[in-house]
Amino acid sequence: EDKVVQSPLSLVVHEGDTVTLNCSYEVTNFRSLLWYKQEKKAPTFLFMLTSSGIEKKSGRLSSILDKKELFSILNITATQTGDSAVYLCAVGYNTNAGKSTFGDGTTLTVKP
Amino acid sequence: KAGVTQTPRYLIKTRGQQVTLSCSPISGHRSVSWYQQTPGQGLQFLFEYFSETQRNKGNFPGRFSGRQFSNSRSEMNVSTLELGDSALYLCASSLEGAINQPQHFGDGTRLSIL
């Protein structure tokens, strides 16, 4: 059975801290790894990673994929209270288009 | 461009009833996927439709069904509702499916079963 495991499950930090969220996976027909941010409503897309070792960056957020060790990390530097959310990791497949398998998410709380 | 629209936003039903949820994808998107989100199980894939055909199905009982119309709008139906069906139901759309494009999610329908 396909598995996507995120750690830690929850994290509390103070504004200005740097955090690293982890996502490991065991799936067949892996195509891509995706990160989403979910606040109160819809998950919003952050990154899609398909190649190992290439860092994707957007402002204070960055992510990288290791296809050999089957994991990805999401880094957030200089955290702000607006970064408080559930961060979801998902894998996409080569053959099962339209399906993504999600991890349980990491709940990040950033305190002022 | 308008985002993914799900209706209704909230729904309260009782055990044994049935329910239909609706999802209008982003204009031009042909793939629509449905997910169930619960605190205990996270986001679980239900099924995906592309060009009016179900392409993929998750591990849910036959009480969960769906369809897609020619304009790519999709509906999900749950029959004989059970207490455990209480969840946030999310719909996501993409151009061709989640192979090379990320999915865009709607705000979900919160279903409560009494």
Described by the principal axes of the CA atoms, the overall outline of chain A is: globular
Low-confidence stretches of chain B: none
Largest sheet of chain A: 6 strands, mixed
Rg value of chain B: 13 Å
- The helix/strand class of chain B is mainly beta
Overall 3D form of chain B: globular
Strand content of chain B: over 45%
Most extensive interface: pair and counts?
A-B, 25 and 31 residues
Strand tally of chain A is: 11
Mean pLDDT of chain B: 92
- Secondary structure: number of strands of chain B: 11
User: Rg of chain A, please?
Assistant: 14 Å
Which structural category do the helix and sheet elements of chain A fall into?
A: mainly beta
What does the oligomeric state look like here? heterodimer
User: Taking all residues together, what is the mean pLDDT of chain A?
Assistant: 93
Order of helices and strands of chain A: EEEEEEEEEEE
Distance between the termini of chain A: 41 Å
- The level of helicity of chain B is under 10%
Describe the model.
The complex is a heterodimer of chains A (112) and B (114). Helices cover 0% and strands 60% of the residues of chain A. The termini of chain A are far apart. By secondary structure, chain A is mostly beta strands. In chain B, the strands form 2 sheets. In chain B, strands 2, 4, 5, 6, 9, 10 and 11 form a 7-stranded mixed sheet that branches. Chain B has a 4-stranded antiparallel sheet with strand order 1-3-8-7, with no helix packed on it. In chain B, a hairpin with a 3-residue loop joins β4 (31-38) and β5. Chain B has strands spanning 5-7, 10-13, 19-24, 31-38, 42-50, 53-57, 64-68, 74-78, 87-94, 104-105, 109-113. Chain B is an all-beta fold. The mean pLDDT of chain B is 92. The chains are: A mainly beta (112), B mainly beta (114). Chains A and B meet through β4, β5, β9 and β10 of A and β4, β5 and β10 of B.
